[in-house]
Design goal:
The chain is mainly beta. It is built from 3 helices and 16 strands. A hairpin with a 7-residue loop joins strand 5 and strand 6 (111-116).
Length: 283
């Protein structure tokens, strides 16, 4: 499969999906709520709690204890979110045989880290705004909606090993509203805004390290291998300068440095031994 053979079963974890979930939650982690008196003076300010979890979890908690008298870490209003699905996005497909490369960090100047081009996926989120009264819910929603037109972009470092930074758009798809009364007029009231989002991100495969090629050598023969020919000509290529530091060029851009090309002719009937790195009389 063009470089992907035997990849399944090789352990790797780039935190691709987790990073998107964290970035999504961070967007809504600083929303404030103000309560005012009849004169319009602020009497209370609070940061709206945010947690990952399904809507049913919070609704069940409210049903069991509508007055929230139990000493547990649940308050209203609050914001919850969860993943509702992940799907492949063929519209953003990249050439899968191309590799992304980066010079290895540290003291090793002869290593390049690389990985195949990422695979595009869409991850869907449901964001829930839960409140006991309408004004609190509207304060929260109005601090969110103006920033999505309909997308909001966050910058993420997708794979630190390859130093890949990408802008990830998070698109607001729809806004739902529920205002349910249960039982008598004194029973609890639950106001729920449901905001649906789609984040367009990429998943990366394993990152591998390999040595930088500083010399290419080719021996040419005048006959087929079955006739045991001896070398006639050698062609070798080295970078110019030969000691160029890997941090001074982009491994994917060959135009940042030159090459020295050498052609040699032989009549000594020797062959190059790959193990010893020398020319020998043995075939």
């Amino acid at each position: 499969m063009l470089g992907w053979d035997n990849m399944i079963g090789q352990y790797f974890y780039n935190n691709s999906t987790r990073n998107v979930v964290v970035a999504f939650g961070t967007i809504f982690n600083t929303i404030q709520l103000h309560k005012k008196d009849g004169s319009g003076n602020i009497v209370q300010s609070m940061k709206v709690p945010l947690a990952y979890g399904p809507k049913q979890k919070w609704l069940s908690r409210l049903t069991e204890d509508p007055n929230l008298n139990k000493k547990v870490a649940v308050t209203l209003p609050r914001i919850g979110f969860e993943i509702s699905g992940i799907a492949y996005d063929p519209a953003r497909k990249l050439q899968k045989t191309v590799k992304v490369k980066k010079v290895a960090d540290g003291t090793d100047t002869n290593q390049v880290k690389s990985g195949f081009m990422p695979v595009p996926y869409n991850i869907n989120f449901e964001l829930y705004v839960l409140s006991k009264n309408s004004d609190d819910a509207l304060q929260i929603v109005e601090q969110i909606l103006p920033f999505f037109q309909p997308d909001y972009t966050v910058t993420m470092k997708e794979v630190p090993e390859l130093d890949i930074i990408r802008d990830v758009p998070i698109i607001l798809n729809s806004v739902g509203y529920e205002d349910d009364y249960e039982g008598t007029f004194t029973s609890r009231r639950s106001i729920i805004y449901t905001l649906s989002f789609t984040a367009k991100y990429y998943m990366y495969g394993p990152v591998t390290a390999s040595n930088i090629i500083r010399k290419v050598q080719v021996d040419q023969y005048a006959d087929l291998p079955v006739n045991s020919p001896k070398r006639e000509q050698r062609y070798s290529v080295t970078p110019n300068p030969s000691n160029v530091a890997p941090t001074s060029f982009d491994p994917s851009d060959e135009d940042n440095f030159g090459f020295n090309e050498v052609t040699s002719f032989f009549q000594d009937a020797k062959n190059y031994d790959e193990k010893s790195g020398t020319d020998t009389d043995d075939a």
